[in-house]
Amino acid sequence: MHTIDPSAYATMDLLRLARDIKAWARELGFQAAAISDTELGEAEARLLDWLAKGYHGEMDYMARHGAKRARPAELQPGTLRVISVRMNYRPPHARDGWEVLADGSRAHIARYALGRDYHKVLRRRLQQLADRIQDAVGPFSYRVFTDSAPVMEVELAQKAGLGWRGKHTLLLSREAGSWFFLGELFTDLPLPVDPPDGSYCGSCQACLDICPTQAIVAPFELDARRCISYLTIEHPGAIPEAFRPLIGNRVYGCDDCQLACPWNKFAQDTGEADFRVRHGLDDVSLVELFAWSEEEFHRKLAGNAIHRIGYERWLRNLAVGLGNAPAGPEVIGALAARAAHPSALVREHVAWALARQRRRT
């Protein structure tokens, strides 16, 4: 990517450009945009401590990139500023998350995965934002990120004033809670930076108390190895037996800490059609999903974030959910039908679920 001649900065109204960028971001469907510098020294120290504790589990890429995550200029040479954006994702008219969790026969899927995969949506909009900037200032150096590279997006968004890191480690906003995606545009433009927001969790620890597996081991510190989102999405192998009963009917991700957070009373539904519920995933039975063939899985979930875990892990997760479901012949029949599945991973979880169900009958 070409860069602007530094001498041009002297005649450029950077304050006005920053205001324009935020307005263009809102026009493109982002609810907010803000600008930070690239200094993440304190965050880097916390990251290295987190990695040293092994809290990243089998997410080897976290350790592989190491401190690079806290050094934007190493990801995109010449980066001086990061434009952080947020976009609401909570789908309107979806069945209430608490209600789904309370009905053990239904499958609870994290709200962000009920519609289309957010990566393409945010990347496309951020590219459009970069194009608008280029139309205004000429060629400049930039790179778009949407949870697709080693970027400390929460730290950068917090530094820019989009919110603060909650005790559950997610970004919180006084205007929007936490039901939103983040994206970044790294740039060499020396834009004026925005001030960080304060922290407003106070003495509340609702997220720590509600976590089914106690994965939030201390305020602002998450042990991914215990986290249901990690276990059902990132973890490639067998789910440790000690955690299976605690997973309940959460078959892809976990929203409990967000559902319990008082700040989410200010959360807003998304206006993005791509994030609306597809295939009734907000209120569907475990038995129905477990009966999907591999062809149905690929056809129905193509373009959905769930698709990336693959059919084998999908069945693994559903088997755990069925093992925790209310006992009944329909559940046992569904599990028995997969008892001889070609995948050893699926067979092992089905056997566990069947044994658990049969002990109840």
Structural class: alpha+beta
Overall average residue pLDDT: 94
Low-confidence stretches: none
Strand order in the sheet with the most strands: 1-2-7-4
Please work out how many helical segments DSSP would assign: 16
Helix content: 25-40%
Q: H/E series, N to C?
A: HEHHHEHEHEHEEEHEEHHEHHHHHH
Q: Please describe the biggest sheet, giving its number of strands, its sense, and whether it closes into a barrel.
A: 4 strands, antiparallel
List the helices and strands and how they pair.
Elements: H1 14-27, E1 32-36, H2 41-52, H3 60-65, H4 72-75, E2 81-88, H5 97-102, E3 108-109, H6 118-137, E4 142-145, H7 153-160, E5 164-165, E6 171-172, E7 180-187, H8 206-210, E8 216-218, E9 221-222, H9 228-234, H10 244-247, E10 250-252, H11 256-260, H12 286-290, H13 294-301, H14 310-324, H15 329-336, H16 344-360
Parallel strand pairs: 3-10
Antiparallel strand pairs: 1-2, 2-7, 4-7, 5-6, 8-9
Helix pairs in contact: 1-6, 14-16, 15-16
Kindly describe this structure.
The protein has about 350 residues and is of the alpha+beta class. It has 2 domains: about 5-185, no CATH class; about 220-255 and about 285-360, no CATH class. It has 16 helices and 10 strands. Helix 1 (about 15-25) runs antiparallel to helix 6.
